[in-house]
Amino acid sequence: MRIIAGSHRGRHLCGPQGTTLRPTSDKVREALFSILGARVSGRRFLDLYAGTGAVGIEAISRGATAVTFVECDSRALQVLRKNLAACGFEDHAQVRVGRTENFLARPDWWDGPYGVVFADPPYADTQAIETVRIVWATELLAEDGVMVIEQDARAVLPPSVAGAALIRRYLYGDTALFLYGAAPRPGGSA
């Protein structure tokens, strides 16, 4: 695993050993940040189900002002913290230890609003849809923010959830990225 672009391009990151983690591949991370483009630089970024932290660390390397990482697995947290330290990104990171559902229920833990929310819940976990609903029903996301959910390529997520509209589904081998943005208002534009 490595950082694809930005200030720390090419830096290698520690990966999981002996865990059930499924880090976002370099190929999918590269595609993700190509999709997000200028939405990252100068914005706050939320990495839910952060695992090794590779996605959020890539966001910092590409100019995100700050990243909040949410993770509950103790072994993943060790790797995440090691990766942040190796890159010198501790000052740009807030690590929240706990389940994503608990984080979403605790506005006092949020450092938002966030310009980008990325969620990589366990594949085949129905929590993904609930996460979209919660994010759009709260003050967590900036008005012009977007949310990306990574899932198995066979996953089907709804075209709209709680004010969020599926902008596009991207396929990369056995991985799908679902990009959600604000649903267009009736009789107007988004």
TrEMBL record:
> Cross-referenced NCBIfam families, in alphabetical order?
16S rRNA (guanine(966)-N(2))-methyltransferase RsmD
**Which keywords label this protein?**
Methyltransferase, Transferase
Q: From the UniProt record, give one GO term of the biological process aspect.
A: rRNA methylation
Q: EC number(s) on record?
A: 2.1.1.-
**Top-level taxonomic group:** Bacteria
**Which organism encodes this protein?**
Nitrospira japonica
CDD domains cross-referenced by the UniProt entry: AdoMet_MTases (cd02440)
Q: Which protein are we looking at?
A: Putative Ribosomal RNA small subunit methyltransferase D
Q: Which GO terms describe its molecular function?
A: methyltransferase activity; nucleic acid binding
* Keyword Transferase listed: yes
